[in-house]
C-alpha cells in the first residue's frame, strides 16, 4: 500500500485502518491531558493556600520571620503551574480537534465506500 500498489480499495482499507488505530490513542491522550490539567489546578490551589498560611503564620509570630523568599518561591512555582496548565489546555484543544477530524474523515470514507459499493464498484471508487 505504501508503495502505491494494491489499488484504491487497498488504500481506502489502509486509511480506514489507520483512522481506527488513531482514534483510541487520541481519546487516551485527551483523557490523560484532562487528568493532568485537573491535578495542575489542584496544585495551584494548594500553593495559594500555603502562601496564605505562611503569611498568616508570619503575622502571628512574636518574632518576625522573613518568609518572603519562601512565598516568592511558591508564587514562582504557581506561575510555572499556570504555564504548564496553559500548554496542556492548548494540547487538549488540538487533541479535541484531531479527534473530531478523525471521526469526520471516518464517516466520509465510510460513506464513499458505501456509495461505491452501491453503485456497482466493489473494488474501489468509480472512475479510478
Counting structural domains, the number is 2
Report the count of strand segments: 0
Number of helices: 2
Helix content: over 70%
Overall SS class = mainly alpha
Termini Cα gap:
16 Å
Task: Walk me through the structure.
This protein is mainly alpha-helical and 128 residues long. It has 2 domains: 9-64; 65-118. It is built from 2 helices and no strands. The longest helix has 54 residues, at 7-60. The chain is rod-shaped.
Task: Give a short summary of the structure.
The protein has 2 helices and no strands.
Feature tags:
single chain; about 130 residues; mainly alpha; rod-shaped; Snapin/Pallidin/Snn1; Biogenesis of lysosome-related organelles complex 1 subunit 7
Helices and strands in order, then pairings?
Blueprint: H1 7-60, H2 68-118
Protein name: Biogenesis of lysosome-related organelles complex 1 subunit 7
InterPro entries: Snapin, Snapin/Pallidin/Snn1
Pfam families: Snapin_Pallidin
